[in-house]
Amino acid sequence: MDPLNEELLAAWLRLSNSINNQRLVEGLSFNEAVVCSLLGRARQDGGYLTARDLCAQTRILKSQMNVILRSLERKGLISRRQSEKDKRQVEVRLLPEGAARYDASHRRSLALAGRLVAAMGEDRVRHLIPLLHQAVDTFDIIQQEV
Predict the structure, then answer these.
(1) Mean pLDDT value across residues 109-120
(2) What are the pLDDT digits (tens) for 116-145?
(3) Does domain 3-145 have CATH number 1.10.10.10?
(4) Taking each helix axis from N to C terminus, what angle separates 51-58 and 62-74, rounded to the nearest 10 degrees?
């Protein structure tokens, strides 16, 4: 086994685990929080995303996305309705309670990011950001080749 590959995988898993375990949104799973985050950002761009959009952006399978959306709907955080433009599409919107949870979790996330910047230093973080984006983009390309 290649030691560099092992070290990269260990660091990747450690970062993923650390982010997953922060529980920035109480009462939501990590995937539910991610969906709420995407819908929260979509509020400024028209107010909704389709279920297909959510699957594409999260790389979550349609069947699993349906489970997540049902759970969020039961919790009173989102609404779903059939698109008037395309009856095959389902529009998903954050409800006021979902928006409030998103806003609160976003503030906690920004505070956590601020603490990370303070601890690591602004210059190091500025160098880290493009590397993280490049790593994710490269991983996506590799996954498409498989």
Answers:
(1) 91
(2) 999 999 999 999 999 999 998 898 899 888
(3) yes
(4) 120
Per-residue model confidence as pLDDT tens digits over 3-62? 999 998 898 888 887 776 666 666 788 889 889 989 988 987 778 899 999 999 998 999
Where are the chain's structural domains? 3-145
Cα–Cα distance between 52 and 105 in angstroms, integer?
24
Q: For every residue of the chain, which 3-state class applies, written as one string?
A: CCHHHHHHHHHHHHHHHHHHCCCCCCCCCHHHHHHHHHHHHHHHHCCCEEHHHHHHHHCCCHHHHHHHHHHHHHCCCEEEEECCCCCCCEEEEECHHHHHHHHHHHHHHHHHHHHHHHHHCHHHHHHHHHHHHHHHHHHHHHHHHC
What's the rounded Cα separation, in Å, for the pair 31 and 68?
7
What is the value of pTM for the model shown? 0.77
